[in-house]
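Supplementary Methods S3. Input chains for the assembly prediction are listed below.
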Amino acid sequence: MLLPALVFAFVSLVTLGAAIAVVTNKNILHSAYYLILTFVGVAAVYVMLQAPFIAVVQVLVYVGAIAILIIFAIMLTRRLMSKEMEQHNAQWVPSVVGALALFVVLAWIVYTAGWPVQEGTPPLDPISQLGQDLLTTYLVPFEIASVLLLAALVGAILIGHEKGMRREE
Amino acid sequence: MTIPLNWFLVLAAGLFCIGLFGVLSRRNAIGILMGIELMLNAVNINLVAFWRYLDPANLTGQVFAIFVFAVAAAEVAVGLALVIAIYRNRDTVVVEEIDLLKQ
Amino acid sequence: MADLINLIEDWIANLLLGWGASEELTLFLLQTLGSVLVIIICFVIVIALIWVERKLAGRIQDRFGPNRAGPFGIFQSFADMIKIFTKEYVTPEGAEKGAFNIAPVLAMASVLAIWAVFPFAVNVIGADIHVGVLYIVAVGAFGILAILMAGWSSNNRYALLGASRSVAMLISYEIPMVVSLLVPVLLAGSTKLSVIVEAQQPWWFLLSAPTAALIYLISSMAEIGKAPFDLLEAESELVAGYHTEYSGMKFGMFYVAEFLHQYTVGALVTIFFLGGWGGPLAVRWPILGVVYFYGKSFLIYLMISWIRLSLPRIRIDEMLNLNWKFLIPVSFINLVAVASVDRILLDLALPIWIDVGVLFAVNLLILLAALYLAGKSKPALERKEFPPRPVAVPPGTER
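Predicted structure tokens for the full assembly:
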């Protein structure tokens, strides 16, 4: 019991610490680096939950694509004086109070609701079963997700295009 | 299962609230997007934790988490394209300065 | 004597258990020993590879290559190592110290971490995880991040340009790499690397999926930044690209990571398409499996070097065109075609060599159709024909 608890404590400390660094750091690029650390921490949490596929997809999608995209966007929107700019707006005190209140409420709900915990073992080979589920039981959401991704792809290219090249029919 | 379910749920709740604080109080638009990503990650941890502890044989929780991945990626792509387009027009990414529709 | 590695492992395990260590501690120590051994072998291989590369480059370019430091220059790598160790670390002013120092470590770590899941022989594998293929792709993403961090934190315009261009290229070429990697996964029926290698044994996936192998090889060569895709470090254009500002051992880490990545790509092509540790007598004598694995990876490494030393660099817009307009459609069509044909053949239950032959034919058909269609498209820039003009004309007759 001790070793899993220690591992969980370490991973959650790293994740939450990096998350706090993301939202409080003055330099937005350093926030992006800490965001990557948060994603890796969350991937470690998935490994502890015995969901290796989700963990690897988390690293692949979030670190390998989304974090790189965020860093690119930061690079493209740099302004000269962004290092000294104040990073928090005027309502940050009510935000802290609100977030803490929400956390207290959520923690209270978590500890007082009786979750119907079952002992069970996850399937040994999740990928084949995931594939079958996605193509039989959850076919409609799967197709809708592909249409959503296509719409996002086309939309992002259109919105991000340079003005001079857009009306070039 | 030596770690109780509550620990994972509290971790996810903490991550969600930190992301919420980021969304509500950052001035940089990309900082707000990073807060949104933290909240989506917290939701995913919740989904996978509930899958593991409540019904591990049925992979519905993981399927839901995969859909959240897809939606998060799509949303980040479009959001960042919007931020870059706004930067090109207004030369700012501070959301307080983008207030043309305000009275 | 044939099962050498497992013999040694059992002997050490018995030794440790005899000294009173618990089961978990023994397992942990054995795994640590195994990882350290693999890493040491990787570094020793890189030392040899640096010499091979320079000798090969010399011979292909019609010169000798290093031949001063020892007979045939075999101590050249050691001379290079001593030089790199003793150089001073110069950190540019205004560089961000944290990211600047972590980037080479991250680049090296992301390449070494791939070696954890390789099957070296029938019963020798580091971590036989169920999502091995995805793990390899995910860890490669960390290398891309390291390049971005290196380019950005150097506080140098050329490094940043080099880093942005290289990251754009790397994330573009990940797509055909992953899609063509799905074809062996499809044919083997699992993402576990050991199952993929065992499914190839007598008919390698090179015969069942040559198009996928070709696309995977091209995309991997783009991923490691070797010519013709080497605008990551185009010496004539960008000084040295993203590692301009690095000196001493930090540059050494990037350098070693590059060679090791090339060898790792050779190992990956071996595992997915060339049968991994397969070969005559590899199942009865696992130590032969290890030899075959390293040997085949070395052959692919030589092939990549050969291509690198023979072709000029292509422009970034031509390279992105190649990726988005040729490799991605071809890899997707290939995946769909192989999936359909494989499903049909599964129902017919023919002998395996007919299956392999049909898949080979389908792949070749797709490749030839794609090349034909690509040849018919117009080039991006029109080439104008000029009549031949003499360089020097006699005085009095110039135009």
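The helical segments of chain B are 5-25, 29-54, 60-90. The two ends of chain B are 56 Å apart (CA to CA).
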